[in-house]
Write a structure and sequence with these properties.
About 50% of the residues are buried. The protein contains 11 helices and no strands. It has one domain (about 40-130, about 165-250). It is globular. The chain is mainly α.
């Protein structure tokens, strides 16, 4: 019961805070925040609590590999957005995510290999995402936007943690970074502010994936060695520190 209450409170709180911050500081910052393990992190903790540290450690490897699929999603959407409407870009990018996930699940992964692959994917996606002139424009979201994001995130966390035992640790980890918010926010940004704003959002998401690496390297190594009460706060601090560095890179890279 305690774990269920934690799921119902923590996930929507994180998503609400990040959504409001993104609205305040624009698409680049919103993208960086999307790269943080806002759903994958809580899912990892819940897997450790429900299925044990060894399961969570193996899932952390899948989490890192799964974020590669997110980079593929971002690159696909960003490249398509300059030529196609969001109604085509969103399904195409989700299909690319699914295809990449299926390919990654065909091989066994280790923590170092998954981290190196993700670093390569971040570099490639950041290099090949288009850079277009961007002028900030107001984009007032509908009233249902924030409650919908919080509700969808909570439902996703509940569903995946419930199905994790049957999916296994690697596939659970690969699916956990599914871009629930990425596809909604990218489509909304493209529709309201244009493809340049969407590309900037997606580039921020890719750079934010550096924080994902820090988080799951700590979890993957530490969860079987240290108490959970130490591991996840340390992973969060590492993630925030790396996210801050990514923010600095993004601010000085334009």
């Amino acid at each position: 019961m305690t774990v269920l209450l934690f799921k119902l409170l923590v996930t929507p709180l994180f998503i609400g805070m990040v959504t409001l911050a993104g609205r305040r500081w624009g698409p680049a910052v919103s993208g960086l925040l999307m790269g943080l393990p806002l759903t994958s992190g809580p899912i990892s903790l819940f897997l450790a609590l429900q299925y044990g540290p060894a399961f969570a450690a193996r899932a952390a490897v899948g989490n890192l590999a799964g974020q590669v699929s997110v980079c593929v999603f971002c690159l696909t959407y960003g490249r398509a957005a300059g030529k196609l409407p969001w109604t085509v870009c969103a399904p195409a990018a989700l299909l690319a995510f699914a295809g990449c996930t299926a390919l990654l699940n065909r091989a066994p992964w280790t923590l170092p290999a998954a981290a190196l692959l993700l670093l390569a994917a971040i570099a490639a996606a950041h290099r090949w995402l288009p850079r277009r002139p961007f002028t900030a424009a107001p984009a007032d979201p509908p009233r249902w936007d924030l409650p919908a994001r919080m509700g969808v995130a909570t439902a996703f966390v509940l569903a995946l943690t419930a199905a994790a035992r049957s999916l296994g640790p690697q596939l659970s980890g690969l699916i956990a970074p599914f871009p629930v918010f990425g596809v909604v926010l990218a489509a909304f940004t493209q529709h309201r502010q244009g493809p340049a704003a969407a590309a900037r959002l997606l580039r921020g998401n890719v750079l934010g994936s550096l924080a994902f690496i820090s988080f799951f390297l700590v979890v993957g190594r530490g969860v079987i060695l240290w108490p959970l009460a130490w591991v996840y706060p340390l992973a969060a601090l590492a993630s925030i520190g790396t996210g801050g560095a990514a923010f600095f890179i993004s601010r000085h890279g334009h």
